[in-house]
Sequence to fold (273 residues):
Amino acid sequence: MGYPDQRFDVNLSILFTELPLLERPAAAAAAGFSAVELWWPWIETPTPGQAELDALKRALDDAGTQLVGLNFYAGRLPGPDRGALSVPGAESDRFRANIEVATAFAASVGCRALNALYGNRVEGTDPAAQDELALENLVLAAHAAHGIGATLLIEALNAPESPHYPLVSAPAAIEVVDRVNAATGLGNAKFLLDLYHLSMNGEDLGQVITAYAAKTGHVQIADNPGRGAPGTGSLPLERLLEELADAGYTGHVGLEYKPGDRPSAESFGWLPA
Fold:
């Protein structure tokens, strides 16, 4: 058990960012990874041209890497935004415009997990109205994901780094997962369990795993403090991943950590050969 038994993938939006986007899949492959994930790569637009989508597909295919997770359009990420789907007006419209584009791209590369970041609270806007809009948009996204046989992921972030994001605990994210599944009847909304974010919130990680492993569709890790590679902080990540496996989780584990002041390829020394 432990690290040797995990199916790790590399998040190419936080690792290998010293390289242009289209060179990152090959770099991940050279480092020994066959699976990768991405935040929405085109921060400035939810609807990039087909040539850009085709180029990314080619880069993934040529490297022999499988895309196992993709974010829907989430605004400026990294940056001040934490999603678009609960933000009234232009951002909600951009999210809706992105649904078809993101699902079509995911289908074209065999990606079966799409992460929908909820979005920040907006000053002067009724939180209940934001939640109503969020549910409408998540229902649209769940149906689109279902159409390609994919899971819709709902992620909890952490309050210290995302103070305006409303889903800053596992129960808060699970409540949204349950609400979406109740509204659609599809059952394809799942929890994105990020051990770094939950630890930053001070949650009991073992308890979260026991309670919600069955509703978990994807897992991400980074150590805490620092959001660095495993071993740079104090989280017992190997043991926690064993607990997840014991609880029945068999999916990929996304490496969503900062490599520090070294090239990303040198940040995998904690992994068994």
About this structure: The beta strands are 7-11, 35-38, 66-71, 113-115, 151-155, 189-194, 216-221, 252-255.
